[in-house]
Design goal:
Distance between the termini: 41 Å
Helix content: 25-40%
Oligomer: single chain
Radius of gyration: 21 Å
Order of helices and strands: HEEHEEH
Mean pLDDT: 84
Number of strands: 4
Strand content: 15-25%
Length: about 140
């Protein structure tokens, strides 16, 4: 089978860096970040958060190959902050947002458990779906 073992998808090998940063020499205030042992999940969240910053001109990512657990993020700033500072700020904001989301989920889950409706019972067909399982378009 061509797929690597699951272990190799998230555990760094000895001496393998989690992050490498290459500053772009052709484009001002630009950098390329390579993050090992990550996939679309982290890359897309980070890209979206970077684009929320007013001084980020460009942020994009790619996964070189589906069987390779590595993402490449390219970004450019307007010069008021370096690309590394932009990534650091975006990571800090993502940590804050995810912590708030976890807290809200836990709170809602506890409230549902207290009401007694935390189980799967009561979930029938989704609203708007017809008897065949489609949305009837």
């Amino acid at each position: 089978m061509n797929a690597p073992s699951r272990y190799e998808l998230f555990v760094l090998a000895d001496g393998e860096p989690k992050l490498t940063v290459d500053e772009d020499t052709k484009i001002p205030n630009a950098a390329t970040l390579t993050i090992n042992k990550e996939d679309h999940t982290l890359a897309n969240m980070l890209r979206a958060q970077l684009l929320h910053l007013p001084y980020v001109l460009f942020a994009g990512y790619k996964v070189p190959h589906p069987l390779e657990p590595r993402v490449i993020i390219k970004l450019q700033t307007d010069g008021t902050m370096t690309p590394i500072q932009a990534v650091q700020e975006s990571c800090d904001k993502l940590i804050t947002v995810l912590a708030a989301m976890k807290q809200q989920f836990t709170q809602e889950s506890n409230m549902a458990r207290a009401r007694g409706d935390a189980g799967d019972e009561g979930y029938g067909a989704l609203e708007g779906m017809d008897a065949g399982g489609g949305f009837g378009f």
